[in-house]
Amino acid sequence: MADVKGCELPDDLWYDVENMLWYRPEADGLVRVGPTRIAVAMGGEVVGATPKRADRRLEPGQACAVVEAGKYVGPAKIAFGCHVVESHEALMDDPSPVNRDPYGEGWFVLVRPDDWATASAALLYGPAAIEPFLAKMAAEEFDGCDSAPSS
């Protein structure tokens, strides 16, 4: 697991640096989607999370969840066209898993991509995302997770 200025970045995930989401391919062609530790630290403590409900169609750039945090309120935008198979609706009542375990319990949706091969080609895998995340953090003047208030 990489450490990017104090922020965990698992080596086995695909990343959309611009939208600060991770993607984990699972069984049967499904892909689990959630926020990166960097996104959570930059936005501040997540106090609300509303994942899109199952059986919804999402186009690239549409919200797979709406997040309310200390410094951010807005969409978590999916990188590719897909259908939502499962929604982590428990986050609507208790968003704390997003803060404490964004790569595990803090996931937003499980989706069936229209074309994972094409979608994944536009994402960054594991360590390839480190430098782009460092550049994004510098552009946002974010010093890292060690400097962020703990959640």
Q: How are the SSEs placed, and which strands pair?
A:
Layout: E1 2-4, E2 7-9, E3 14-16, E4 21-25, E5 31-35, H1 37-43, E6 46-51, E7 57-58, E8 63-69, E9 73-77, E10 82-87, H2 96-100, E11 109-113, H3 116-121, E12 124-125, H4 130-139
Antiparallel strand pairs: 1-2, 3-4, 3-12, 4-5, 5-11, 6-8, 7-10, 8-9, 10-11
User: Which strand order spans the largest sheet, edge to edge or round the barrel?
Assistant: 7-10-11-5-4-3-12
Largest sheet: 7 strands, antiparallel
Total number of helices: 4
Estimate the mean pLDDT confidence: 93
Low-confidence stretches: none
User: What share of the residues does DSSP label as strand, in percent?
Assistant: 25-35%
Instruction: Give the CATH class.
Output: Mainly Beta
How would you name the CATH homologous superfamily?
RNA polymerase II/Efflux pump adaptor protein, barrel-sandwich hybrid domain
- Classification by helices and strands: alpha+beta
Fold-level CATH name? OB fold (Dihydrolipoamide Acetyltransferase, E2P)
Q: What is the first-to-last residue Cα distance?
A: 21 Å
Radius of gyration, in Å, reads: 14 Å
Number of distinct beta strands: 12
Element-level helix/strand string:
EEEEEHEEEEEHEHEH
Helix content: 10-25%
Q: How many distinct domains?
A: 1
The shape, in one word, is globular
What is the CATH architecture assignment?
Beta Barrel
Task: Describe what you observe in this structure.
By secondary structure, this protein is α+β, with helices and mostly antiparallel strands. It has one domain (2-114): RNA polymerase II/Efflux pump adaptor protein, barrel-sandwich hybrid domain (OB fold (Dihydrolipoamide Acetyltransferase, E2P)). Helix content is 19%, strand content 34%. The chain is built from four helices and twelve strands. The chain has helices at residues 37-43, 96-100, 116-121, 130-139, and strands at 2-4, 7-9, 14-16, 21-25, 31-35, 46-51, 57-58, 63-69, 73-77, 82-87, 109-113, 124-125. Strands 7-10-11-5-4-3-12 form a seven-stranded antiparallel beta sheet. A hairpin with a 4-residue loop joins β3 (14-16) and β4 (21-25). The longest helix has 10 residues, at 130-139. The radius of gyration is 14 Å and the shape is globular. The protein starts with a strand and ends in a 12-residue tail after the last helix.
